[in-house]
Amino acid sequence: MLPPKKKFILLCAFAFIAFFSCSKKPLVPAAVREALPPTFEAQAKTSAYPGAEWPRTAPEKMGINREKLKMLEEYLFTTTGKEEERKGIRTDVFVLVRNGNIVFEKYGRAFHKNRKHLVWSVTKSFINTLTGMAVLDGKIKPEDKAATYFTPLATEGKNNILIDHLLRMSSGLFWSEGYEASPLKSSVIAMLYTRGRNDMATFAASQDLEYTPGTHWYYSSGTTNILTAILKNIYGNDFENLIFQRLFKTIGMRFTTFERDGALTPVGSSYLYTTGQDLARLGYLYLHDGVWQARRLLPEKWVRYTTTMAPAYYTTELNEEDKEDNPGAQWYINQGIPERNQERPWKDAPPDTFAALGHWGQSLFVIPSLDIVAVRLADDRDGSFDKNRYLYLITQSLEKKND
After folding, report:
1. How many domains does the structure of the chain reveal?
2. DSSP letter string over 103-137?
3. Residue 280, class by beta-carbon neighbours within 10 Å (0-12 exposed, 13-18 middle, 19+ buried)?
4. SS3 labels along 171-209
């Protein structure tokens, strides 16, 4: 039998070896990594960009069957039930762009091309964009500790939260993202409407650390508002310029604005108002790998980073709702997890499809392999809208894929 002191040293050595081995093990299983699509490259077939107005053309000229397009129109705009009951599929805005041209556009419920619509959590994808611009500026890196730029996180444990963890909603901070189902216990309701509304980022950062950062995925509007406050701190008085001049003006978003909290920070989780045509411009920027008219706004491979599954998603026990949309970095992807027998969420759409998604039916879908950007803004309340059905009707309307 070993003496107690030597036994203790041996146990410590085994523990160190075990820890080192685990730390070297990739978070993403090998089989899943092999199933990832190839490194994202700009796949748009056109180099033309819209000016003040989007160019328009007939669907047939872009390889779209007009008769099949009617099936999509019928699905989106057939009203069911009474207006006051808010039942059925309630589409307010639909814009379809292919090869850089608007090929179909329609509005409902008094909306028109210049009327702004609240896009709810599609706003989060704009915060991803602004973060990418900050990375290109050399102001920040995904591997940076968030506490460096936001002192409410400068406490033990929380100071290990990285910018990457916030982007991928794996900060480990407690959060309850419940709306109608659990308003009294909801962190997001408290943040947006009650005790957190005067400074939403600080409220989100004040939550207890429930998991080791980077190990647990949970959908959290709070983490996006922390990111927004970080960007505001980094840019100071230039933050407004970053948003409205360098992003919105550059890509031609003329009818877009943010609502702010009591600290005058844009509510990056939820409160951007824009039009269907303006929102399509953000999708077109991502379709072109972050380049607008030969000007790079996002770092090379930022779109690839954005559309890679959040590592903590693989190590988190998921409920059925969490399986509906695969998370990237403030965008959603169409990958699935073969090792869990988890299918792609939109199985009738190409695997490279990705999306910005929001409450009550807001969506911006980008399909690089088909050179398609599709915007739908809505007021869905009863869960009857099917994203996969919607994407199927878009893709089946194509006469042929791009050459």
Report:
1. 1
2. EEEEE-TT--TTS-EE-GGGHHHHHHHHHHHHHHT
3. buried
4. CCECCCCCCCCCCCCCHHHHHHHCCCCCCHHHHHHCCCE
How many CB atoms are located within 10 Å of the residue 224 CB?
Answer: 28
Position 300 in a domain: yes
- pLDDT tens, residue order, the chain (403 aa): 445 444 434 444 433 333 333 333 333 443 333 334 444 555 677 789 999 999 999 999 999 999 999 999 999 999 777 788 888 999 999 999 999 999 999 999 999 999 999 999 999 999 999 999 999 999 999 999 999 999 999 999 999 999 999 999 999 999 999 876 667 789 999 999 999 999 999 999 999 999 999 999 999 999 999 999 999 999 999 999 999 999 999 999 999 999 999 999 999 999 999 999 999 999 999 999 999 999 999 999 999 999 999 999 999 999 888 888 999 999 999 999 998 899 999 999 999 999 999 999 999 999 999 999 999 999 999 999 999 999 999 999 998 654 4
Is residue 231, in this structure, part of any structural domain at all?
no
User: Is 298 among the domain residues?
Assistant: yes
57 is in which domain, residue-wise? 34-124+131-137+237-396
pTM over 0.85: yes
Does residue 173 lie within any of the structural domains? no
Residue whose token pair is 């269907």: 276
